[in-house]
From TrEMBL:
Residues 1-16 form the signal peptide. Keywords: Signal. Coiled coil: none annotated. Residues 20-81 form the Kazal-like domain. It comes from the Eukaryota. This is Kazal-like domain-containing protein.
Amino acid sequence: MLRIVCLCVILGIALSAKPEIGSPHCVSVLATDCSTYSPEPVCAFDGQTHVTYQNSCEFAKGICTHHGHSLHAVHEGPCDPATDTP
């Protein structure tokens, strides 16, 4: 049940524009224990660099902590320096 709630929160953050770190969505996501999620990497881009997050939970936390930068998922799996270039 908690995972379903967290996934709904993650979806809400992903669909909103630059969530504030103190917003209810971010407070909930930042308090989540991401170690309980499957290790399914997400490659993301913040407009400057590509970053691999361990799972969707860590990616959601990244969205909340990228102050002033939009963070977008590029693809599932780790980033590849050979193909994931700005």
